[in-house]
Design goal:
By secondary structure, the chain is of the alpha/beta class. Helix content is 49%, strand content 14%. The strands form four sheets. Strands 2-3-4-1-5 form a five-stranded parallel β-sheet, with helices on both faces. Strands 12-11-13-14-15 form a five-stranded parallel β-sheet, sandwiched between helices. It has a three-stranded antiparallel β-sheet with strand order 8-10-9. Helix 7 crosses helix 8, helix 10 runs antiparallel to helix 11 and helix 10 packs across helix 16.
């Protein structure tokens, strides 16, 4: 019997030998690799075996091709320089470019042009293989649309359970063991060979199996124990980094936690990649706050500024607005986070949000300047604000009254009524005020008055506390202070809501 070491069987990194399992796409990959001149793009989530499959396929083909293989990675500075020079190198042989998505746009464009030339000339002396996360092929085609038909794009999906199970069985046979929770490990791996390797590795360590056993060893252990051991170990590497991302550039405890929400969407994704535009459309209550950090480049800036902590965990394409996990162990960690406890520990008051909007603005057109400044200030504080200008596309083809009525009646925690001189005379402000007038009794309407304007002794808005703006003075600092007080009011409202026990 051959004796294997645990670390060589259930490998935590690198290309496995004992437990290598051909992915579903392997035959197509073999054919694409031996087709002269034709570029090959392999894309898919991290940790599912793309690089291992390419390495194994090339090893199988090497005796017949006789070509050397040059392996480059966009993660290494020296390699990035060589990748940039690749189009000028004649008879380069087989070149593998891993982590292609990390290259600068100009280098990706250069490689796209080079692939077209190689395909058109059916070059025998050079073949380029690109490996990247989801949409790597789309990225290339966006630079050179006429590449379509000239390159082979192979999409590696998450591996089916039977392939992951085969990996576990190969490892158990090599170590002469049987893992009682093997089926649960296969399910928990979510199609990732890498995660399956990690879970099996830890299962073995719980009973001190470090190499092939001289006699068959049944490992009786619950999956829950394996998972907790793995998570405890991963927490040392990832908890702090997850916190840094979830807090964003500045923790706003009363806000809608947009960075935390993005991280949670990522944890729930099936292929470890999210299209932020699509996610925002699926979660309209978070569209404003998440849209704010995406549109203004805050998400891109955060990842750039925290590149030492987050750079090897996630990749963000700010043009396509696609965010992907690059470390499968990090994905396993965030997928199994206790999210409510995590949010609480960071310092957020609430991340469930019973209302669609935090604030709904009601105003006449003459006061749009105030409304715009207030919207900007509240959005910067990561609140969800209904502001008609931002809703115009969504209102198209809708019955406007039916669309607006519930927002002012109940879908906003607070209505902020900007009561300028034109407010009582406009049709839409009359309609909006009809919807929210009963909410004065619920302490959910916050009026904003203007200095020097006569409101009348019987104006219902004068019966509640509100804010005042003086148009004779600079507006921005006044609006900024009002926005801060509104945020404080919302914080108090959420804290009070948390303290009320459910019946």
């Amino acid at each position: 019997m051959t004796t294997y070491r645990l670390e060589d069987v259930f490998k935590l990194s690198g290309v496995p030998e004992v437990t290598f399992v051909e992915p579903v796409e392997f035959p197509r990959l073999l054919v694409a690799l031996r087709t002269p001149g034709r570029g090959v793009v392999i894309e898919g989530p991290s940790g599912i075996g793309k690089t291992s499959a390419v390495t194994k396929a090339l090893a199988r083909l090497e005796p017949e091709s006789g070509q050397s293989v040059l392996r480059l990675s966009a993660r290494r500075q020296d390699d990035r320089e060589l990748i940039g020079e690749l189009p000028t190198i004649k008879e380069a042989g087989v070149v593998v470019i891993d982590d292609f998505h990390r290259l600068d746009a100009d280098v990706r464009l250069s490689i796209a042009d080079h692939l077209k030339v190689l395909a058109d000339e059916e070059r025998q002396d050079t073949k380029v293989i690109v490996i990247g996360i989801n949409q790597a092929g789309d990225s290339l085609l966006s630079f050179a649309p006429d590449l379509s038909g000239r390159i082979e794009v192979i999409k590696f999906a998450v591996n089916p359970d039977d392939r992951v199970k085969s990996l576990v069985e190969k490892g158990c046979e090599a170590l002469n063991i049987e893992i009682s929770c093997a089926d649960e490990i296969v399910q928990a791996a979510d199609g990732s060979f890498n995660i399956a390797q990690m879970l099996c590795h830890d299962a073995c360590l719980t009973v001190n199996v470090t190499e092939t056993a001289s006699k068959h060893v049944p490992i009786e252990i619950s999956y829950e124990l394996v998972r907790e051991r793995v998570l405890d170990r991963l927490a040392g590497s990832f908890y702090r980094r997850a916190e840094v991302f979830a807090k964003g550039k500045k923790l706003r405890r009363e806000g809608r936690a947009p960075y935390l929400q993005i991280l949670r969407w990522l944890a729930l994704s099936e292929e470890w990649t999210i299209d932020l535009d699509r996610e925002m459309s699926k979660h309209p209550a978070l569209r404003g706050s998440v849209g704010q950090v995406v549109e203004k480049g805050h998400l891109r800036n955060l990842l750039d500024e925290q590149s030492e902590l987050l750079g090897d965990l996630m990749h963000y394409d700010s043009e396509a607005r696609v965010l992907a996990v690059e470390d499968p162990k990090f994905f396993f960690f965030i997928k199994n986070l206790a999210w409510n406890r995590f949010a609480e520990r960071i310092g957020y008051f609430d991340v469930s949000f019973s209302s669609r909007y935090d604030f709904a603005l009601s105003f006449a057109g003459a006061d749009r300047d105030i409304a715009q400044m207030l919207f900007d200030a509240l959005s910067e504080l990561e609140h969800e604000v209904f502001y008609d200008k931002n809703e115009q596309a969504r209102i198209l083809a809708e019955n406007v009254e039916e669309y607006l009525a519930p927002i002012y009646k109940s879908e906003a925690s607070f209505v902020v009524a900007i009561l300028g001189p034109d407010y009582p005379t406009r049709i839409w402000t009359k309609f909006e005020s009809e919807q929210f007038k009963k909410r004065f009794g619920e302490k959910a309407v916050i009026p904003i008055w203007f200095t020097g304007q006569d409101y009348g002794a019987f104006d219902i808005s004068r019966e509640v506390g509100g804010e005042t703006i003086d148009r004779a003075k600079p507006l921005e600092p006044q609006v900024a202070e009002i926005a801060q007080r509104l945020a404080m009011k919302l914080t108090a409202h959420r804290i009070a809501g948390e303290s009320v026990e459910e019946p």
